[in-house]
Amino acid sequence: MTRWKAATLHALASLLLVAAITAIIVPLWHPWGLYRISGVLPLLGLLLGAQMIAGPVLTFIVFKPGKKSLRLDLAVVCLLQLAFLGFGLHMLWQTRPVFVVASDMRLALILANEVEAADLARASHPEWSRLPKGAPLLAGLRPGTARTDHASVLAAFLDTGMDQERNPAWYMPYAQVVPRLAFNAAPSTADGQPAGTPEEAPFRSLPIVARHGAGRMVLDAGSLQPVRVATY
Q1: Is the distance from CB of 128 to CB of 168 less than 8 angstroms?
Q2: Mapping DSSP to helix (H, G, I), strand (E, B) and coil, where does residue 99 land?
Q3: Per-residue pLDDT tens digits for 157-167
Q4: Using H for helix, E for strand and C for coil, what is the string for 110-163?
Q5: 22: helix, coil or strand?
Q6: CA geometry: angle 224, 227, 232, nearest 5 deg
Q7: In what helix (H) or strand (E) does residue 177 lie, and over which residues does it extend?
Q8: Neighbour-count burial of 198, counting CB atoms closer than 10 A to its CB (0-12 exposed, 13-18 middle, 19+ buried)
Q9: What pTM, to 2 d.p., does this model score?
Q10: How far does Cα 186 stand from its chain's mean position?
Q11: What is the pLDDT of residue 155?
């Protein structure tokens, strides 16, 4: 086997590995198209780049038919690739979406590394006292803590050093915030654009913000449950 063939086979295996990881975590951790604003796509790109450099590129460099230390060299390459893979998976885990929090005027996507353990311990409901391992949980923000209430937000920030949307102690069931969402959500099309005939629009939409992006969350007009994230 030539070094070109060895590197090509290693590259195909690395691509399949990253593709499999993507196929699992995107639907699991990023429902409703949250991947568009969560920042996971750049991380997957970095993971792929690291896998290609630590795998196929190094294989191409060290591979030489008949080389006495070839097995040892390839073992070291595999160990390096596994180390990069482990680090990449850790980063994906730490930055997975865990809560989608709705206030009067918008929704916020909260990532795992944005929530403090001490705040989880003070969660207003047991469901929010631990970070979910699967899909993010829907929650509402207690009245008076929305960003439009500048006085309460400033007081909370000065007191805690963080937005209330990242603090499970301020969460309430999503169903309890639905009436406020229904009042403020704009009639829209499936892609978040203003509806031409508002009275017949099957969807509503509100802004959704995250650390790495923003868009509009399209909601079902009847249930106000999330449908998809639209970005422009």
Answers
A1: yes
A2: strand
A3: 444 434 789 99
A4: EEHHHCCHHHHHCCCCHHHCCCCCCCCEEEEECCCCCCCCHHHHHHHHHHHCCC
A5: helix
A6: 115
A7: helix 174-184
A8: exposed
A9: 0.85
A10: 25
A11: 54
